[in-house]
């Protein structure tokens, strides 16, 4: 199966309420399930563009519920569906903690997808304001993982 088709399949499963999917094609075996649990309460979402000299734009995201700000800052999102790990191994400490200063390109966590470990790097310089994913939590494409200020 072509890589692009696998990515499309993963995104389709991510967008659905499917609880299990298994497929076999020649020597490829693919098994997926979703365990969707909302991380945030429903609220108003406000996107504020912040101009940068390097790229077209960055976005500062705020989610508010009943006047209380839950999430604000530069958000690092999951680039794919998989299992989030906050450290390189079970014995090692987390890559980052709330309050840590991080540099652009610094590893914040790992998302495992199809037996591949994908390092999640900070897209920004700043301070870790929030870690939104639990260790070994299944994450979806585009799900907020970290807030950097």
TrEMBL record:
Superkingdom to which the source organism belongs: Bacteria
PROSITE patterns attached to this UniProt entry: BIOTIN, BIOTINYL_LIPOYL
Pathway in which this enzyme or protein is active: Lipid metabolism; fatty acid biosynthesis
Cellular-component GO terms for this entry: acetyl-CoA carboxylase complex
Listed InterPro entries: AcCoA_biotinCC (IPR001249), Biotin_BS (IPR001882), Biotin_Carboxyl_Carrier/Decarb (IPR050709), Biotin_lipoyl (IPR000089), Single_hybrid_motif (IPR011053)
UniProtKB keywords: Biotin, Fatty acid biosynthesis, Fatty acid metabolism, Lipid biosynthesis, Lipid metabolism
Stored Pfam families: Biotin_lipoyl
Limits of the Lipoyl-binding domain: 73-149
GO MF term (any one): acetyl-CoA carboxylase activity
Any one GO BP annotation for this protein: fatty acid biosynthetic process
Its job: This protein is a component of the acetyl coenzyme A carboxylase complex; first, biotin carboxylase catalyzes the carboxylation of the carrier protein and then the transcarboxylase transfers the carboxyl group to form malonyl-CoA.
Name of the protein this chain belongs to: Biotin carboxyl carrier protein of acetyl-CoA carboxylase
Organism per entry: Lactonifactor longoviformis DSM 17459
């Amino acid at each position: 199966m072509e890589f692009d088709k696998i990515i499309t399949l993963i995104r389709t499963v991510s967008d659905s309420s499917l609880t299990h999917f298994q497929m076999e094609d020649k020597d490829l075996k693919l098994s997926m399930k979703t365990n969707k649990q909302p991380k945030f309460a429903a609220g108003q979402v406000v996107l504020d563009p912040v101009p940068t000299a390097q790229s077209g734009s960055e976005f500062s995201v705020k989610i508010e519920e009943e006047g209380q700000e839950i999430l604000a800052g530069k958000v690092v999102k999951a680039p794919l569906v998989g299992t989030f790990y906050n450290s390189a191994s079970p014995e090692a400490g987390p890559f980052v903690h709330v309050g840590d200063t991080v540099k652009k390109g610094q590893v914040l966590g790992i998302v495992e997808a199809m037996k591949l470990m994908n390092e999640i790097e900070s897209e920004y310089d700043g301070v870790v304001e929030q870690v939104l994913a639990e260790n070994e939590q299944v994450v979806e494409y585009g799900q907020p993982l970290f807030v950097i200020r």
